[in-house]
Amino acid sequence: MELITLIKYAFLGLLQGVTEPIPVSSSGHLVIAREIFNIEAQGLSFEIFLNTASLLAILFVYRHDIISIIKNLWRYLVQGARDQEAITDFKYTICLIIATIPAGVAGLLLKDFIGENISVGFVGLMLFVTGIALWFIKNKRGDKRDGDLTIKDSIIVGLSQCIALTPGISRSGATIVGSIAVGLSQKNALRFAFLLYIPVSLGTALISVGDIVNDPNMNTLWLAYLIAFVITLFATYFAVKWLQNIMEKGNLIIFTYYCFALGTFAILYQFIWA
C-alpha cells in the first residue's frame, strides 16, 4: 500500500472526525475531499465505517449523561420511582425515541439512494442551506430544559434530522437548529442533538455491517481504513469539546460563514475547475 494512499485516508479520517460533531456536514466534506483527491470509496460503507468511530467518541463524551438516564429509567420503569429526576429522564427518553423515528424510517427506505451520485456542486448548494438555517437561529436563546420538551417538539427535531440525510445538510446543524427553534437553550440543544445522534448512528451501523464487511476496498485498503477510523475517533472527541465551548460562548455564527465559504468553493469547483 502506497504511503500517499495512507496519508489520503488519514486526512479523510481527520476530516470526518472534525466535521461530524460540528454543524458543517461531514458527509458533504467527504464528497468534496474524495473528488479533489480522487479517492475511490464508492457508496456509504466508508462513511458509515468512519461514522461508527465518531459514534464511539460521542458515547464516551456523554457517558455520564447516558448512564444517568439509564439509571433513572430503571428506577422509573422497574422500581416505580416517581421523583422529579426519574420523571424528567423518562419523558426525555420518550422524546428522544420519537425524534429518532423519522430519520430511522427515512434511512431504511432511502439507504440505497442516499449519497449515490452526489455532485460537489449539489453539496455546495446544501451547505448554503445549512448556513442559512444557522443564521436564522444565531441570536435565539431558549429557556426550555430537558423536562420541558413536548411530543410536538420531538417531532419537529426528528423531521429536521430527516433533512440532514442529504450530503451537505449538516446532521448536527439540523438537529441543533431544530432544538433551538423549539425553545431549548443552546447548551440543552447541543446535548439533545448528540444524544439523538446515538440511536440513529447505532442503527445505521448495525444495518450496514454487511455492506462494510463486503466492501470491495476492505481487503486491499484495510490498513488505510483502520488508520482513518482511529484518527476519526480522537478527532471527534476533541471536536465535540470544542463545539461545547463555542456554544457556551454563543459563537455559533462562525459556522454560518464557514458553510457559505465552502459552499461557494464547491460550486465554483463543480462548474469552473472540475
Automatic annotation (TrEMBL):
Q: How does it sit in the membrane?
A: Multi-pass membrane protein
- InterPro entries according to UniProt: UppP (IPR003824)
**Bilayer-crossing regions:** 92-111, 117-137, 192-210, 222-240, 252-272
Q: Where in the cell is it found?
A: Cell membrane
Q: Which GO terms describe its biological process?
A: cell wall organization; peptidoglycan biosynthetic process; regulation of cell shape; response to antibiotic
Q: Where is the signal peptide?
A: none
Per the record, its GO cellular-component terms are: plasma membrane
GO MF terms here are: undecaprenyl-diphosphatase activity
Its main subcellular localisation, reduced to a broad class, is: membrane
Substrates-to-products reaction catalysed: di-trans,octa-cis-undecaprenyl diphosphate + H2O = di-trans,octa-cis-undecaprenyl phosphate + phosphate + H(+)
One Pfam family of this chain: BacA
For this UniProt record, give its keywords in alphabetical order, as a comma-separated list: Antibiotic resistance, Cell membrane, Cell shape, Cell wall biogenesis/degradation, Hydrolase, Membrane, Peptidoglycan synthesis, Transmembrane, Transmembrane helix
Reply yes or no: does the keyword Cell membrane apply: yes
Function according to Swiss-Prot or TrEMBL: Catalyzes the dephosphorylation of undecaprenyl diphosphate (UPP). Confers resistance to bacitracin.
* Something else known: Bacitracin is thought to be involved in the inhibition of peptidoglycan synthesis by sequestering undecaprenyl diphosphate, thereby reducing the pool of lipid carrier available.
Protein name per UniProt: Undecaprenyl-diphosphatase
Question: Gene of origin?
Answer: uppP
